[in-house]
Specification:
binds magnesium ion, globular, binds 2'-deoxyadenosine-5'-diphosphate, alpha+beta, 4 strands
Length: about 150
């Protein structure tokens, strides 16, 4: 089973979209194994977005991510990384197709509500930035054999 890091970024919390967005992952059949409400500091944001260092939007992106609380989650399931990226939609809210989270709720490029890891390798790296191993729960989901 694959795991992926999902962040509901500060705009999602400010816009009261935690429930609406999280419902999509639950309804898809993914399993929640980690969840916390966290205000990222500059050091965490820098590590999280290290790949974007030097790009014109980098500073603004760090300011945005550290501007308020985020919901950090780890979701598990078959092909979880790609499945979550598909649920999220394209980076630019204006281009993300309807039916996706960004397509339905976002218009901005930067303030696009949600982060999802883009590969299994980055997922394990990002999960270790946001969660301690003991914060991830191994639990038996009753309909697991029906869903995956
Ligand atoms: P994604 O979040 O879809 O993985 P990304 O990794 O390319 O997108 O970029 C990380 C975040 O940076 C993205 O969610 C929003 C912001 N961003 C990306 N490109 C941008 C741009 N051209 N202008 C402003 N913000 C941008
Ligand atoms: Mg990315």
């Amino acid at each position: 089973m694959q795991q992926t890091l999902i962040l509901l970024k500060p705009d999602a919390i400010q816009r009261r979209l935690i429930g609406s967005i999280t419902a999509r992952f639950e309804q898809k059949g993914l399993q929640l194994i980690g969840l916390k409400f966290v205000k990222a500091d500059r050091a965490l944001a820098e590590k999280h977005y290290a790949v974007h260092k030097g790009k014109p939007f980098y500073e603004s992106l760090l300011e945005f991510l550290t501007s308020g609380p985020t919901v950090a989650m780890v979701w598990q399931g078959r092909e979880a990384v790609q499945v979550c990226r598909n649920l999220m939609g394209l980076t630019d809210g204006a281009k993300a197709p309807p039916g996706t989270i960004r397509g339905d709720f976002a218009l901005s490029v930067q303030n696009n509500l949600i982060h999802g890891s883009d590969s299994a390798e980055n997922a394990s790296l990002e999960i270790s930035l946001w969660f301690k191993p003991e914060e991830l729960l191994n639990w038996n989901i009753v309909d697991g054999t029906w869903v995956s």
